[in-house]
Amino acid sequence: MADSALPEGLANVLGFQLSKCGWWLEQRLEEALQPLEIRVRHYLVLAMLSSRETLSQQEMATYLLLDPTLMVGLVDDLEALGLCERARDPKDRRRYSVRITAEGRALHERARALADQVRAEVFGPLSPEELRTVAKAIGRVMEPFWTEQTERPRRKTG
After folding, report:
1. Residues facing residue 109 across a β-bridge
2. 155 pLDDT more than 60
3. Given the DSSP bridges, would you call strands 92-100 and 84-89 parallel, antiparallel or unpaired?
C-alpha cells in the first residue's frame, strides 16, 4: 500500500481495516437514511422484523449487542412512527413480542434499496465474485462469535 494515505503500520492491521470499513459503511448509511427519518439501528430492527413474524425485544437486543434499555427505545421510536407493534407475549407476560407493520415493511424496502446503493458504492472496487468471497469469509470468521452470543450473550452498551 505504498500509495495509500494510511500508514503502512495501520494498513497491515486487518482488524483495524475491517473495523474502519464497518464504521465507514455505517456512516454512509446514516446519511442515506436521513430522508426516511430513521437511523441505522432502526433499519436493522426493521430488517430483523421483516424476516420473522415476531421477535422479542430481548432477542433483538442480543442480536444487535445492545443493552435491553436501548432496544426498548428503538422499538418505542418505531412504534411511534407506526412501523412496528409491540404486545405482551401470551406465553410470558414479562416479554414483549414485536412485529413489523405494513408501513414498516414498505419503509424497510425503501431503506434496503438505500443500503444496497451504499454497499455497491463502498464495495465498488470489488468484483461480484470477490464480494461473495469476502462475505463468505467474514461469515466463517464470525460464526463462532454468533454461536457464543446465542449461548452466552455479551452486550455492549453503545
Report:
1. none
2. no
3. antiparallel
The secondary structure element, H or E, covering residue 117 is helix 102-122
**Residue 71 CA to chain centroid, in angstroms?**
13
pTM: 0.86
Residues 82 and 103: beta-carbon distance below 8 Å = yes
Residue 114 to residues 4, 32, 77, 157: CA-CA distances in angstroms?
28, 6, 20, 27
- In a 10 Å sphere around its CB, with 0-12 CB exposed, 13-18 middle and 19+ buried, how is residue 74 labelled? buried
Question: How many other CB atoms sit within 10 Å of the CB of residue 83?
Answer: 23
- Return the closest-CA partner of residue 12 out of 3, 23, 1: 1
Judge whether 104 and 83 are in contact, CB under 8 Å. yes
Residue 117, pLDDT > 90, answer yes
